[in-house]
C-alpha cells in the first residue's frame, strides 16, 4: 500500500526540485546517461518569464534543472521544487511514479492502477498529468520529506518534469501555489493570462448537458470542470471527466499521444484516427484508444476561445459497455 488510500494518490504531471544539497535519493527523472541533457520541451518557457510565489527561495541552477526553489515552513520544515527537461531516456509516467514511490518506501503500482489515479491539469497548451504521493520520509526526516507532488508534460519525445518534495504538511500548504506555477510555466508566453482558472466564469459559462442514468456526480477540482463516476457490472470504476481551459488545448496528435501513454501505449508517428461526433450545435473531434487493460474514449471541441475535453476512461470491457452513454452525453452538450 502507498501510505494513503489508493483514491488519495492523484496523478497530474509534475516533477521535482532541488536545493544546494543533493535531493533525497535518485535523480529528478529516469535517465540512462550521466552526460548533460540538452533537450528541452518547447512549450515550457524560460523560468525568467514566470513569477514564482514570493515565499519560494530561488536556488542555484544545474545542468539538470531549469528552475529550482526551496520553501521554508514552520519548525524547520522544507519543500524542494524543481523543473527538469529530458529526452526519451526519461522513462514513462509509470516508471517515474514507481521510482518516486520507492523513494517513499512504498510498493510499485500497475499501469491499470495508475490510469485510475491520473488527474488532469488544464493549461493554455493542453492537459498535463499530476500525481500526489505520500509515504515514509527518507532517513526518517519528516521535516524535509514524506510527500511528492509531481507533473509530467510530454511533447514529441521530450518531457518536462515539475516536482515538489518535502514535509507533508508544507507540501499540502503549497500545493495550489505549485499547480498554478506549473500551469503558468506550461503556458504560451508571458503576455498571456497564466493562472486563469480551469473553468470559465459563471457569467460566461452557458454549457448544459444531460447526465445519463447510472452516472454519479463527483466533486470537481482545480483540474476539472466536472466529474462523474459509473460502476461496471463487476464493480469496476469508470471515470468521466470534463475539462476546459483558455486557448486551443494543444495539438491533437500530442494530446492523443499523451492519452495513449496514460494507458500504457507507445506514441504514434502519423496522424491519429480522429472521427467527427456531431451534436445539435457543435462538431466534436473524437477518438477511441484501447490498451491492454484500459481504454479511453475522448471528445473535444474548441469554442469561443476555449478548449473543452470530455473523456471516458476505465477497464476495456466497462468502457465498451458505457461508450454509448458517453456518446449520448457528448451529443447532449449545449453551449
Task: Please provide a written account of the structure.
By secondary structure, the protein is of the alpha+beta class. Helix content is 19%, strand content 30%. It has helices spanning 93-103, 111-117, 168-185, 252-262, 316-331, and strands spanning 56-58, 65-72, 78-86, 119-121, 128-134, 147-155, 158-166, 216-218, 226-231, 237-246, 275-278, 283-290, 294-303, 306-315. The longest helix is centred in the middle third of the chain and has 18 residues, at 168-185. Residues 1-27, 30-48 and 188-198 have low confidence and may be disordered.
Secondary-structure map with pairings?
Blueprint: E1 56-58, E2 65-72, E3 78-86, H1 93-103, H2 111-117, E4 119-121, E5 128-134, E6 147-155, E7 158-166, H3 168-185, E8 216-218, E9 226-231, E10 237-246, H4 252-262, E11 275-278, E12 283-290, E13 294-303, E14 306-315, H5 316-331
Antiparallel strand pairs: 1-2, 2-3, 3-7, 4-5, 5-6, 6-7, 8-9, 9-10, 10-14, 11-12, 12-13, 13-14
Amino acid at each position: 500500500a502507498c501510505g494513503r488510500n489508493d483514491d488519495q494518490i492523484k496523478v497530474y504531471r509534475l516533477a521535482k526540485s532541488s536545493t544546494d544539497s543533493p535531493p533525497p535519493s535518485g535523480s529528478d527523472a529516469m535517465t540512462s546517461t550521466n552526460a548533460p541533457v540538452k533537450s528541452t520541451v518547447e512549450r515550457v518557457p524560460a523560468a525568467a518569464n514566470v513569477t514564482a510565489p514570493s515565499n519560494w527561495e530561488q536556488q542555484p541552477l544545474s545542468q539538470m534543472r531549469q528552475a529550482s526553489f526551496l520553501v521554508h515552513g514552520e519548525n524547520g520544515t522544507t519543500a524542494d521544487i524543481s523543473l527538469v527537461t529530458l529526452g526519451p531516456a526519461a522513462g514513462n509516467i509509470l516508471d517515474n511514479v514507481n521510482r518516486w514511490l520507492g523513494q517513499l518506501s512504498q510498493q510499485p503500482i500497475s499501469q491499470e492502477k495508475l490510469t485510475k489515479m491520473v488527474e488532469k491539469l488544464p493549461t493554455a497548451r493542453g492537459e498535463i498529468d499530476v500525481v500526489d504521493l505520500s509515504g515514509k520520509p527518507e532517513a526518517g526526516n519528516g521535516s524535509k520529506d514524506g510527500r511528492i507532488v509531481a507533473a509530467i508534460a510530454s511533447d514529441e519525445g521530450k518531457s518536462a518534469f515539475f516536482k515538489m518534495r518535502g514535509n507533508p504538511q508544507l507540501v499540502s500548504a503549497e500545493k495550489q501555489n505549485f499547480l498554478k506555477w506549473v500551469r503558468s510555466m506550461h503556458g504560451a508566453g508571458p503576455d498571456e493570462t497564466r493562472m486563469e482558472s480551469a473553468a470559465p466564469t459563471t457569467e460566461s459559462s452557458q454549457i448544459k448537458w444531460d447526465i445519463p442514468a447510472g452516472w454519479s456526480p463527483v466533486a470537481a477540482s482545480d483540474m476539472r470542470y466536472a466529474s462523474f463516476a459509473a460502476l461496471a457490472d463487476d464493480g469496476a470504476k469508470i471515470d468521466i471527466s470534463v475539462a476546459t481551459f483558455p486557448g486551443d488545448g494543444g495539438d491533437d496528435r500530442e494530446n492523443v499521444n499523451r492519452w495513449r501513454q496514460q494507458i500504457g501505449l507507445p506514441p504514434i508517428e502519423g496522424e491519429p484516427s480522429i472521427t467527427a461526433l456531431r451534436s445539435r450545435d457543435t462538431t466534436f473531434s473524437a477518438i477511441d484508444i484501447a490498451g491492454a487493460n484500459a481504454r479511453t474514449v475522448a471528445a473535444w471541441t474548441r469554442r469561443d476561445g476555449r478548449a473543452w475535453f470530455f473523456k471516458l476512461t476505465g477497464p476495456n470491457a466497462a468502457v465498451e459497455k458505457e461508450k454509448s452513454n458517453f456518446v449520448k452525453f457528448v451529443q447532449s452538450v449545449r453551449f
